[in-house]
Each structure stands twice: as structure tokens, then as C-alpha cells.
Amino acid sequence: MKDFEKLGVFYMGREYDLATKKEQPKSVLYPSKDLVTHAVCVGMTGSGKTGLCLALLEEAAIDGIPALVIDPKGDLANLMLTFPDLKPKDFEDWVNGDDARRKGLSKQDYAKQQADLWRKGLNDWEELQADDDEFGGNRIKRLKATCDVAVYTPGSNAGIPVSILQSFDAPPEALRNDTELLRERVNTTATSLLSLLNIDADPVQSKQHILISTLFSASWKAGKNVDLATLIQQLQHPPVSRIGVLDLETFYPSKERFELAMLFNNLLASPSFESWMEGVALDIQSLLYTKEGKPRVAIFSIAHLNDTERMFFVSLFYNQVIGWMRQQPGTTSLRAIVYMDEIFGYFPPVKNPPSKTPMLTLLKQARAFGVGMVLATQNPVDIDYKGLANCGTWFIGRLQTDRDKMRLLDGLEGASSSTGAKFDRAEMERILAGLGTRVFLLHDVNLERPIVFITRWALCYLSGPLTRNQIKMLMDPVREALSVGAVKAEAKDADEGERSDSRAVLPPEVPQFFMPIRGAKPSGVTLVYKPGLLGCAQVYYSDAKNDVDLTTPYTHHVEVTDEAVAVDRMAAEEEDDISDADLERQPGDDNCQFGHLPREAAKPKAYDAWRKSYADFLYRNQKVSIFKCKELDEVSKANEPEREFRLRLTQSAREKRDQEVEQLRQKYAVKSAGIDEKIRKAMQAAEKKNQASKQSKLLALLTAGTSLLAAFLGGRKITATTVGKVTTTVSKAGKSMKDSQDASMAEENVDTLKSQKESLEAQFNDEVAKLQNSIDPQKAALDEVQIRPKKTNITVRVLALAWSPWWKAADGKLTSAWK
After folding, report:
1. How many Cα atoms within 13 Å fall on the side-chain side of residue 654?
2. CA neighbor of 76 nearest in space, from 67, 89, 85
């Protein structure tokens, strides 16, 4: 593999000896990671600046790095003119016919000459030589295989049109949370829009700029998107009531706001502006990669736009890039390139056009996200070198005047000092004086020394600026694939009735809200808003005797007509699932219709009267009901249904019964334990008595038997001793009888105690049965008590004009969109 085919380096050319005016064999390989510190390319017309920048984009594409390219002249679309086989027929549509005629050649012969020239040039720079890879060393094939190229034309359908409908969407959350970045984006967006109306608005002194900035800021902070139709509506009915410390009418009267809204409306209705409203969305991620994940070079050709439109698009573009960038994780590698050719007028040293602030933001912050900015110009005097001091790489070609050189040296010195690199101004001035066509100075703060090099041969054919027809010819074959998901401008029906701009203009004193839309929008319907009167209140109910301490919210709604509004009609229109927190300040769809608003509903004083009537209506009609059960001494919750209360009573009674049974069980358990202890002791005593009785009987029997046997078998005379033994025997027999009697008494004592325990258990069961036969909660008598509020405890939070949404079918049938 050739050294310049390695990933991570861009093959820019070969070193060049200014003394001998000859190229050197050593290749100039620019590290792609150095581009995260951004680059500037400066060179006069004819210096080869366009070829150098196209080569840079080609190298990035071969490495799989996507790029966003703004092309003010139309010659960067040459990047699509890549012909791997270099056949003369491939060149025929792109060679300049005037050049062919001047050379006395037919278009076909001139195309063959150009094909041969390109083949020789690429061979000389080793870009077509055989190599051990799938492309055979053909770098054009490698380029086409690794990256997609497309040309987009905002405000035109020559290429792929770009819609700005989503360009005013709320920025990502990370950007919205950054106060400074959000303020910058708001300011540049407001300035860009006003520039379309030829209003040179100062962000501090212009009322138009301040109001529009406020509208964008309020919507974006809430995460809401804004388009031109929404902006026109918000100018008439702003979602804010104050600007700074002044109320809106004092700061910017409604009459003047209407005039500004009409200017934007005329712009939106202009046929020439319709092309801005259709095409692919300005979604950076989708532009950088195809749906298959292939990197893309997205070229935005704006040569057909006037200066105002160019500034408008460039400002929007860079703001979108910042929003996308802030969503990416940090990296030190090159993620994408953002390149703009001919930045004259977009980044001036003194003025502050809408494009300058986002460009400066990217130069300061994009490196942390791996985004490399590349800016090119032929007029170094007309760019802000303080801002370009953030650039670490400078490609410098031949300059036109000494003034340009001096200004450029100042910029280089500033860039070097910001990184601590050494800068030899005298040597640099000598080098700049010797530069020629296609010869550039590479000043990279990451390299030890500046490098003078000659640019390599471009892989694409440099045909010059392409016309709109040529761009159309290039993009027609791929237009359908690239336009998937594109936004189309909505057709305007001539007989269309009331639209969003027909919404009644009301004094700021008239409070108005929009009911929320619930559910998805059915197909083939139009959103229609009907005027109504909405009341939201809180009523506090208090009754210490019945333990009531309750605050209840109420919401009532009734449609208003030309007839007198009867607040009492609200009784039938209570809304349980809507509160004042659900109300919205703006309609749910910009393309909607509004019903007729009665004259009375446009008077601020009418709402003061309706507010009082609504409070009186609540006092007369709202109440809280409770149930009381005297037998069980229980009170229901406020507005608790009887069934639920009885179920709760049943559960409560069950719990109370179980608790009382447990208390009885514990009470009788103590008594039962005492009897059990007595039984145990009595049984022990009875056992001892029985044992003693048995022993006494046995002993008496043995003694008597021994004495009689001795008397009869011994043959002796009865002596005193014999009489004594007989007496002893008789005595023991008497003791045996006594022990037997004691044992019988002990057993009788045990039986008595057992009878007492049985009696105790029967008594316990009787008491439990009484508890179970108490009052049945399901049949207990209930008394209903109604508690009404005091007038001082009624708070009307909202009494306002409320627009309720309805879906209107083609046949005119209306279906509620909010219930």
C-alpha cells in the first residue's frame, strides 16, 4: 500500500523547492486529526485554491469522513465529476465549448484531450497505478465506493431542494440549557429573518428584533418549534405579555405588530419563496450520512441566490450545525468537515452579520466534538483574523497585494502565539513572496516547520462553475432516492375559508386560551376552533362538626354565541378531566380555522362581569354531601357514594369486631390459664395420693400376711411381741384406708376444676356470639347531610375565552377533538 493510502492522513501533494522551482519526491501527508483545530485556505484567483480544497475533500471522503460544503460560486459541485475509466465520452457534457472553439477543436476532440490530460496527471501523481487492493490502485474508484456526493440547492429545484420548515425547530436540550449559545442562536435567527425583509435590525435598539427574539426564546425554552406561519400568528397574538419591564402594548402596539406580520405574510405567500418550503429537511445527521450509513459530501450550491438570501441560508445552516454538534459525544478524532468557500462578507473584521456569530462559535467549540471548520477566501483583508486565530492550519497560496500579505502575516502570528508556537515573520514573508500557481505554504501549529508544497492532481474533473442545468443533470438520476421524506409545500386552495390568520384580534385584557387536542388527527379533516367561555375555580368546604375540610376544583365550559351568555348554562357543561393546567396559549395546529367570535366576547369588561356571575353560580349550585350513621357513630367522606360508605362501614365493623373478639380472647385466656394451673397442681396432688394409697395397701397386706404366717407355722405361743406385730399390722391397714380416701378427694377436686374451665369457655363463646349479632352495616340507617361553601371560600382562577378544537370533515360534520 502506498504511504498516502494509509488511514488518518490526507495526500495533499509533494514538497516544493522555491529556489529551484521544482517539486520534490517526498509526499505531503496532512494528519486528518489536525483538522479538528480548523483550517484556513487563502489564495487569489488562479492560485489553485479550489483544486487544493477539492483535494482535501476527496481525501476526507476516501477516509470515510463526511463533509458539509457551502459553495457560493458553483465550482465545488465538480466533486461529482469523477470518471473512474476516464473515457472521453464521460467528459463531453462537462468540457467548456468556448474553450474548445478557441482551440479550434470539436467538443468530442476537446473531451478526448481533457480525458488524456487527466489520465496523465493522475498517473504522474500515482493515483491510477496498480496496487494490491480491490480498486487496482484507482483512487477514483476508491472515492466513489467509500463516499456519496450530492448537490443541494436551497431556494431552487435544480439540485435537491432544501426546506427551511424545520430550520426554526427548537434546538436540542443541551443547547437550550446553555444560556449563551441559546441567546446567540436566537439573535442570529432573528437577524437573518429580518434581513429577508431588508430590515437592518440592531439587536439592542430594534423593536422588531427584540420582539422576534423574545418570541423565539419563549418557544424554544419551552421546547416548541417555530415556523414562519407560527411566527406570523405569534406577532398578532404573542405568547408573552411583557417585554422587559413594559407591557406588550406599550412596547410594541398591536397595530405596528400587525404591519410586521403582514410583511412576513407577504414573504410567505410569495411564489418565489415557495421553493424554500419544500425539499429535504436541513437535518445535519441525515445530510452527513445516507440511510445505509455511507458518509456523504453534501454540497450546498447557493450561487443562484441573491446576497440577502445567501446570508439567510448560511446563518440558518451554521445554527443547525451547532445544534447537531451539541448532541454529539466529545472526541479528539475528526468526525466531520464543515467547509465554506469564499467567506468574504460572512466573517468580516468589523461588521457583525448574522453568519458571523455561529461561525465564531464553531471555531471556538467545534474541536471538542471532532468537527473541523475549513474556510477559504481570496481576500484576506476582509476576514476577521482575531476569530481565525482559533485555526491551527493555514494553506496559503499566491496573494494579490502586499496589504494582503501583511494582514495574513498578522493572522499567522496570532494563531502561533495562541498555541505557543514559534513564528519567524521574516522567513514567512520570504516564503509568501515566492509562491506560484498550485504552490502553497502549509502552516500547521502541530508541525515543527512550515511546508511548501505543490498540490496533487484532483481526482474529479475541474470543469469550472456548474450551471443550474448542469447541476440538474447531475442530480436527476438520484433525486428520487435523496428526496425520501422531503417536505412539500402545501397547496393553497382558492376557496379555502377562514385560516389561522382569521383569528380575532383581541385586546390584551381579554384572557384567552386553547383547549388541548386529544388523540391523533384523523385523515381528511380540518381543525376548527369554536369560541367558548371557560371557568376554573377552587371551592373550599369546611365543617368541623362533621370532620369536613376539603378543597375541590371545578371546571365549566359553555359555547358562546351572539345571544347573551348565560353563565347558569355551565351547570350542564362541567368538565371533569380538564384543569387550568391543561390550557394552552397557542392553537394546536397553525393550519386551522376559527369560528365566529360574538362581539360581546371581545369586550374585556364582559369577563369581569362573567367572573362574578361564575362565582355566584358556584355558590348557588355547588355542595358536598356526606352520610352519617348514628348507630355506628361513623361519617362518610365528602361526596362518597352510599354503596362505598356501607362497604367501608362493613369493613370497619369487621375490624372492630375482630378487635373486640381478640380483647375477649386475651381476657379469658388469663382466667383459663389460672384454672389450667390449678388443674395441673390438683392432678399432681391426686397422683401423689394414689401412689401413697397403693403403697399403704401393699405394706399393710405384706405385714399382715407375715405375722399370720409366723403365728401358724411357728407353733409358738402368743407373746407380747406377736401381739405388737399384729397391732402394727392393723395400724398400717388403717393408714391405707385413709390414703385411699385422700386420693378419691383429690380426683374429685380435679373434676371440679375441669367443670369450671368448661363453664369459662361457654361464657367466652356466649360473649363472642353477642358481638357477631350486633348491628348490620348494610342495613344501618343513614342520614344525608349537605354542606355548602361560603362565598369567601370560592376562588375563581380562570374565567376566559377558551377556543375548543373540533375536527371538520369534508361534508362539514364536526367532531370534538378535545373530549
Report:
1. 7
2. 67
With cell 385523515, the residue in question is 523
What pLDDT does 804 receive? 92
User: Got the DSSP string for 27-59?
Assistant: EEEEEGGGGGG-EEEE--TTSSHHHHHHHHHHH
651, 765: one domain: yes
User: Count of domains in the chain?
Assistant: 2
How far apart (Å, rounded) are the C-alpha atoms in residues 657 and 559? Answer: 55
Q: Are 300 and 70 in contact (CB under 8 A)?
A: yes
Domain span including residue 733: 642-772
| 716: helix, strand or coil | coil
Cα distances (Å, whole numbers) of residue 23 to 11, 120, 462: 15, 17, 22
CA-to-CA separations, 69 to 340, 462, 470, 486, in angstroms, rounded: 6, 17, 18, 20
729 and 690 part of one domain = yes
Which residue's C-alpha cell is 433525486? 479
CA 322 – CA 176 distance, rounded (Å): 12
Q: Is the separation of the CB atoms in 312 and 195 below 8 Å?
A: yes
Co-location of 801 and 765 in the same domain:
no
Tens digits of residue pLDDT in 751-800 = 887 788 788 788 878 777 766 656 677 777 888 888 889 999 999 999 99
Task: Summarize the confidence of residues 221-246 as an average pLDDT.
Answer: 85
Cβ–Cβ under 8 Å, residues 30 and 55: no
Asked, for residue 32, whether it belongs to a domain, the answer is no
Residue pair 565/533 in contact (Cβ under 8 Å)? The answer is: yes
Transcribe 151-197 into DSSP letters: EE-TT-SSSB-EE-TTTTSPPPHHHHT-HHHHHHHHHHHHHHHHHHT
705-716 pLDDT per residue, tens? 666 666 566 555
- Whole-model pTM? 0.64
In a domain, 662, yes or no: yes
Distance, CA of 209 to CA of 202 (rounded, Å) = 7
Whether pLDDT at 730 is above 70: no
Q: Which of 53-67, 490-504, 632-646, 780-794 has the highest mean pLDDT?
A: 53-67
Residues 663, 764, single domain; the answer is yes
Average pLDDT for 519-529: 90
The predicted-structure confidence for 182-199, as pLDDT tens digits, reads as follows: 888 898 889 888 988 888
